[in-house]
Write a structure and sequence with these properties.
110 residues; alpha+beta; four-stranded mixed sheet; 4 strands
């Protein structure tokens, strides 16, 4: 898990998406890098407005990419670390998308 400051923390009790429940999803399959960044930003902005706490972004495993590598996975992590409204994020459990998805804990303002 990455903390708000972007540090890896082994304390998964701080982020338990299976207790919060996934409140919305964004599937980025088929998007270019630039399109994905715009879609992700708009999605997170909307989720914050809705006061969602836990959301899932499906980025895929890269099996259809040129080098069969996950093009968006690393970039999404970097983009999330730049956002003040992202408290933490982690790879999804297998039943929620595993290595092809990321769960995000959002800061909710009162």
């Amino acid at each position: 898990i990455l903390s708000e400051a972007g540090h890896v923390t082994p304390n998964t009790a701080a982020f338990t998406p299976w207790l919060l429940g996934i409140q919305d999803n964004l599937d980025l399959h088929g998007f270019t890098r630039d399109e994905a960044r715009q879609e992700l930003s708009a999605f997170l902005d909307a989720c914050v407005l809705e006061k969602y706490r836990c959301v899932r972004v499906i980025h895929g495993k890269g099996l259809s990419s040129k080098n069969r590598e996950p093009v968006l996975k690393i970039r999404i992590g970097n983009w999330l670390m730049q956002r003040a409204d992202v408290l933490a994020f982690c790879q999804a459990k297998p039943e929620d998308g595993g290595g092809g998805a990321i769960l995000i804990l959002l800061k909710v303002n009162a």
